[in-house]
Structures are given as C-alpha cells and as structure tokens.
Amino acid sequence: MGATGSGKSSLSVDLALRFKAEIINSDKMQFYDGLKVTTNQSTMAERREVPHHLLGELDPEDGEVTAAEFRNMAAQTISGITYRKKLPILAGGSNSYIHALLANSFDRESYPFSPSGSICSELRYDCCFIWIDVEQPVLFEYLSLRLDKMMKTGMFEEIAEFHRAKEAPNEPLGIWKSIGVQEFDAYLKMYKWDNNVEKWDHVRKEAYKKAVRAIKENTFQLTKDQIKKIKKLRTAGWDIRKVDATASFREAIRAAKEGDCGDEMQRKIWNKEVVEPCVEVVKRHLEQPIN
Asked: Signal peptide span per the entry (predicted)?
C-alpha cells in the first residue's frame, strides 16, 4: 500500500521473486488495456516474469469496475493463486477497492471513507500489510520530475490519441478518470495534436503548461487522499506496517537533477531501506500460526 509513485509495484515484484508469489493489481486505473504510460502500468521488463493479474486486462469501453465487482474478481484470482500454492500479493493505491476485497463485511451501498462511513476491522483473509511511505516534500518533488519524464516519453501523445480514437462518455467513467485525461480535455478540444512545439504560439504553450500544472496538482492531492485512507484503515484496527522509502527517493531525485543514471545506488538504498525490512516482515508473518 502507499501513495501513487511510492514504489508499490516495484516492491511487489521484489517480494514475489522471494516468496513464489503472484501479483494482483488494485489500482482502478490500471485495470484497463490502454493509457499504459499515463497510468504508469508496469512494463513486461519491470514485471520480471512474475505473473500479474487484473492489470491491463479490461477494454476501456467496459465502463467502470465497481468495488463490489473488484471484490468478486480479486477473490476469484486469489483462489486461483492459492490453488497453485503461490502467495497472492495485492498491490495498488485504490484503498476503497482494497477495503472492499479484504473486509469481512462489505456494504456495496456505503463508501467506507466518507465522513459517515465505517471501516470493517474484521478481515476475510490472513493479511500482512505493508505501507511504503515517503516524506511528502520528497515525494512531491519526485512525482513532478517523474511527470516531466513521462511527458517526454509519450504520455501526451498517448492521451491525444486516446481522445481522438475514443468517444468520451457524458460523465467521466473508468479509465476516463485517469489523471491526465481530464486535464488535457479542454486543450485537445481547442488544438489539434501537433508535437512541433517550435510552431506553437504563446497562447498554446501556456494552455499546455496549464494542463501539465493541473496534472501535478491533482496528483499531489491524490497522494494526500490515499494517505488519509491508509491512516483511517490503521485507526480502524488494520495492522499496517509502515516502511520509510524516503532515502531511496532522495537518491532518485539527485540522480535525475544531475543527469546521472543513478540506478545502481538507488537500488542499493532501496534494497537496504525497503526490501530487506519488508522481507523480514513477510517472513515473520508467514511463520505465525493461523488462528
């Protein structure tokens, strides 16, 4: 668990390779086959041959997956993984879906994170929760740099093609809620897609920059909301272990600013500060007798 961009996908693969596990996606924007750059879906190389489920499998035209539907889909996936005698690892930032799957008592008509909502403290499964935390200023700086990189590696082109090829619903549903799609909606209605920036006039450049700023601001707000939900789950009695990944992200920021690849050093810090402690947490959990 954790905020967007905090390394959940990476850690899930690291753990899966050590514990003979398969991964279930719980990010509602990554269910769909489309906008792989925009939704930051793990590439095949990043998955390192670990089986992934509910990731990039649904057609964008299928509409929105409800929490109740996710509860059923993911439960069936867990049954299949355990039948193969593998460990299921759930990874993603959609905490309302995580609650829907894992809560013993689930009310499809109630949103558990609303002011009047309630969190079910009794769980359907024997769970080991890990929260990857990154200090907010560090995470925000990293996310800003990450978005700049994503824009340079095809995010805008992907969104423009998505808008061109798909008919937008009257109200944003499913993948249409992805951060980036809505922020560029007005821009793409006004301007035809053209990546020849040198020919853009000042007004168009400003409209583009405004959309990028909105993406960053909405991403920052999303991380705040995600952390609030994790804290609410903890308050309700979910035993969520927090692991601090800030040092690794500071190294990633330093490397990006200095034009240094930095992968080896960041991986070394990541392994020491995040992976090794989490491996120990999972080991201890698996060694405990099930009540």
From this structure: none
Tell me: the pLDDT tens digits for 131-176?
999 999 999 999 999 999 999 889 999 998 888 887 776 777 788 8
Q: First and final CA of the chain: distance in angstroms? A: 24
pLDDT digits (tens, 9 = 90+) for 108-121: 888 999 998 899 99
Burial class (CB in 10 A: 0-12, 13-18, 19+), 267: middle
Please provide the CATH number assigned to the domain covering 8-287. 3.40.50.300
